[in-house]
Structures are given as structure tokens and as C-alpha cells.
Amino acid sequence: MTETAMNSDYPHSATPEEIWAILRESAELHKVQMQEADRRRQEADRWRQETDQIMQETARRLQETDKLVKETARQMKETDRQVGKLSNRFGELAEHLVAPNIKEKFNTLGFTFEEVSQNKQITDAAGNHVAEIDILLENGNAVIAVEVKAKPNEKDVEEHIRRMDVLRRRADVRNDKRVFQGAIAGAIMSNEVRNHILKNGFYVIEQTGDTVRIHIPEGFKPRQW
């Protein structure tokens, strides 16, 4: 067998130039891979920074929301306190403005009320609370229940109608044959509310100076329960 034949059976040995080419290619590939890895690290860092910023912003907004909730709760508490003060003022209005003169005011209209009660608690046969009357005028024939509001509205009128219904049912159970009527007193009253009160058959009691007057327009017919 010749030497030429023997060499043809084995792979060709790489030349130095080919080896250097392979090394350069490997180095270039490694460089590209390192650049891609660095790019991905930078992108991951950027993503983490953005996530941190979002989390910090979320935490800041949560703190602001918590402050807003606390401030809202404080304002609601203050509102409740003011409402409580107003309720007390309503009671004062009934006690110091309406109650002292109300019996005489109605008696000039032909009534003869003998008894005046304030904050009258109404209970049923079982002793359960069913209504509260700010001022109750009574005699042997008639009863007038007065609801006192600083500034009455139409809802107050509807509630007083229900209150009068309760009084009538209670009277029927007790075989009380007296006539029941109602009135609504207010320090501030719009024409619309005044007309609504009169339309539903209630006397209108309004503040005038340091006393009150009963407003009875021509043709007014008080409702009886």
C-alpha cells in the first residue's frame, strides 16, 4: 500500500490558519453571548428598578389613601358631633321657644288645653316605645301633637303623619275617644314646606321674634285622627 493511499483514510489535519480561524470564531461567539447576557442583566436590572418604583409609588398612594380614610372618619365624627349639637338645639327650641306659649296660643283659637307635656314617650300595651312627641297638648276632648324642627322639610311631615297614626291606634286600644290633631313648629320654614304642612292638615307654628305664632290661612281645615 502506498503512502498516498494510507493518508486518504484519515481526516485532514487542521492547519495553523484553520485553528486560528476556529479560535477567532469561538471568541467572537463567546463575545456575542457575553453581550447578550449583559443585555439581559441590564434589562433585568431595569425591570427590577421599575418594579421598585411601582412598589414605592403604590406604598405612597396607600399611605395617602390611609390618611384620606382617617381624615374622612374624622370629618364624619365631627359631623356627627355637630348633628348632635343641632339635635340638642332642636330640644332647646322646643323647650324655650315653643312650649312656654303654645297652650295660650291654641287657647286663643277656642281650645281649652289644661295639660302640656314635653318629650312625651308613647308606649304600646306591652310597654314598648312606639313614638315620641316633642310637645303634647291635652284636655278631655282633644289632643294636639306638636313636632318641633329648626327647619322642617317634607319628610318631617310624612313622619308626623305616621306618628299621628300611631297615636290614633294607641287611643283606640285604650278606648280613648278624643280627637287627635297635629302641628309642626319651625324656626325656618320655606313657603313650599309651609304649604305642604297645611295641605296635610297640620297646624303651622312659626317663630316670630322671641315668640311663636300659629299660621292658619283662610279655608284651612285641620285633619283629625
- CATH architecture descriptor name of the domain at 94-215: 3-Layer(aba) Sandwich
**Separation of termini?**
139 Å
Helix % is 55-70%
Mean pLDDT: 85
Largest sheet: 6 strands, mixed
Sheet with the most strands: spatial strand order? 1-2-3-4-5-6
Could you please say which CATH topology of the domain at 94-215 applies here? Trna Endonuclease, Chain: A, domain 1
Query: What is the molecular shape?
Result: rod-shaped
> How many strand units?
6
Q: Enumerate how many helices there are, as a single number.
A: 4
Task: Write down the CATH class of the domain at 94-215.
Answer: Alpha Beta
Strand content: 15-25%
Report the uncertain regions: none
Q: Taking Cα atoms only, what radius of gyration do you get, to the nearest Å?
A: 45 Å
Structural class: alpha/beta
Order of helices and strands: HHEEEHEHEE
How would you describe this structure to a colleague?
The protein contains four helices and six strands, in the order H-H-E-E-E-H-E-H-E-E. It is α/β, with parallel strands linked by helices and 225 residues long. It has a domain at 94-215: Trna Endonuclease, Chain: A, domain 1. A six-stranded mixed sheet has the order 1-2-3-4-5-6, with helices on both faces.
